Amino acid sequence: MVSTGGLATRRGKVSKFATIGVAGAGAWGLALANAAAAAGRAVVVWGRDADALAALARTRTSAHLPGVALAPAATVASEIGALAAADALLLVVPAQAARAAAARLAERLAPRPLIVCAKGIERGSQRFMTEVVAEAAPGWPAAILSGPSFAADVAAGLPTAVTLASVDEALARALSAALSGPNLRLYHSTDPRGVEIGGAAKNVLAIACGVVAGLGLGASAGSALIARGFAELRRFAAAFGARPTTLMGLSGLGDLVLTCSTAQSRNFAFGQALGRGASVAEASAGKLVEGALTAAALMQMARARAVEMPISAAVEALIDGRIDAAHTVGALLARPLKGEDDA
User: By three-state DSSP, how is residue 316 classified?
Assistant: First the structure.
């Protein structure tokens, strides 16, 4: 059992993890920093961009979250060593940067709970996020935070619920209690594999839903794609030992529905642009699209375990330039008819 850190008070009041560190000062990192502050935590924010950090410290605002001020309880640190004051760390960097960021933290700080807040699979290694942390920061208790959430909504204090998972139930429970506040509710889980698979796979499926929207195929087609995409997600998760109930929860079905239904999702917007005829470069518009980076790794892992994922495979082919948007949908519609329980 790992130590959950912090100081305890009497009568069950939450005081573990009194200070939360946030490694990453993008939109999601700042939104989570404000949410942690609203939950009564002291917060230390650190990022790699020294100029952006200096501006954040001076103005308490960021171009990543227009109109939102950093909470008074959050301090901005220019040195990574300042995160040593934190009882637990939120790692809020893109999935493909998680290994380097975790390794850098491990070089400078003593082990403490590290909550990964990225949704993806590492390319090349085909590792899930908690596996990346285990390799890059040995001895650091790893957790994963995922669920239906947009940074702008959380930063604006709109009601949001997500899942935090760790193999250590006591740790997951304590972290969830410490980070839950007036508008952000965390449910704890002991199935990190299911939580991280839901977060990674739904980004790929959101691209497909965006393509359908971009092609103007209607809400009925979009709904069918979500349902069939969810079937793919569950097959993949089962092959990797995730619990079916996890995929039915916030980090699976909940996040899938959110991401696949609005252009506020960067993955959906990317797919929508592809459906309207944009190239991959044009569709990304210079922004990070996690689903585009995850698609190939997801399909390599699916093929290795003989998991059928036709929608995800079509997205992979579209991003690789082996098929265009219209033919992507046509190929899916031309698949052999099956019973719904068998498809």
Answer: helix
Model pLDDT for residues 212-229, shown as the tens digit of each residue: 999 999 999 999 999 999
Q: Is the pTM of the predicted complex or chain greater than 0.85?
A: yes
Query: Mind telling me the catalytic residues?
Result: 202
In a shared domain, residues 114 and 225? no
Whether 108 contacts 81, CB under 8 Å: yes
Range of the domain at 229: 198-333
